[in-house]
Amino acid sequence: MGEKPKLIVNGVRTDGRKPGDLRSLKITAGFLHRADGSAYLEWGENKILAAVYGPRECVPRHDMNPYKACVRCRYVMAPFASLEEHGRSGPSRRSIELSKVIREVFENVVLSEQFPKTAIDVYIEVLQADGGTRCAGITAASVALANAGIPMKDLVSAVAVGKVDGELVLDCNKIEDNHGESDVPIAFAARNKDVLLFQMDGLLSKQELGKAFEMAEAASEYIHEVQVNALKEVYEKKKAEIEGENNGV
Ligand code: CDP
User: What is the pLDDT of residues 102-139, one digit of tens each?
Assistant: First the structure.
């Protein structure tokens, strides 16, 4: 990993941000045309595709639940996603863990009782990684699920708060993630602020943890806005197309 670089100099982080700043976030919903729903997200240097299929026939049948849809999730990082050598693509210990915690997020918001015996598959492909990919993946997948028309209690917005050089910072990039003292990814349901994911690497005091939650919650409101705008854009585009057809354009 090498020697720890200085991560905050005169209140400014390695990429020029202040401690409470997010990296720039762009989401395009309906990015893929074969999937039932999809989203492409760029969050700082992270580039992530999310695709959703379903509700569809549940295969293998032993996954099938007679009372609700089986929500499945696959998070993978492309072999070329970062400077680190990943060797081969496909599942790793880390990606299996992330797929599990992300599945648990969506099991808690998807109204799966409406679709017994079916499967809803959520695929998250990390094309380029720079820290915070689980939060970015959840944020993208939530848009993809809504784009697929899957009924949910709410959209999910996620962001990590870290501690670097003794200070709490929002939305760590990779260098801050790797060399920082702590990294806390949190996912919120937009309306009631239910905490759907909470993980913690390293240590924080009780006070710091409280502050980290406040920072993440405030940021989640902005992230939610970007998600909603991405979904609205698809709708507006469709609406304009239909109106164009009706006017004989
Ligand atoms: O991405 P996230 O912060 O959710 O997960 P992490 O396991 O804390 O990884 C932090 C960052 O390290 C990732 O975003 C990647 O940039 C990098 N990483 C990688 O390139 N290859 C791995 N096998 C693990 C992490």
Answer: 999 999 999 999 999 999 999 999 999 999 999 999 99
Q: List pLDDT tens digits, range 153-190.
A: 999 999 999 999 999 999 999 999 999 999 999 999 99
| pLDDT one-digit tens code per residue, 49-64 | 999 999 999 999 999 9
CA angle 115, 67, 69 (to 5 degrees): 40
Asked if 5 and 90 touch (Cβ cutoff 8 Å), the reply is no
Q: Give the nearest ligand 1 atom to 82 CA.
A: 20
Is residue 134 within 6 Å of ligand 1 at its C-beta? yes
Distance 235 CA to ligand 1 centre (A): 34
What domains does the chain contain, in order, with CATH numbers? 12-246 (3.30.230.70)
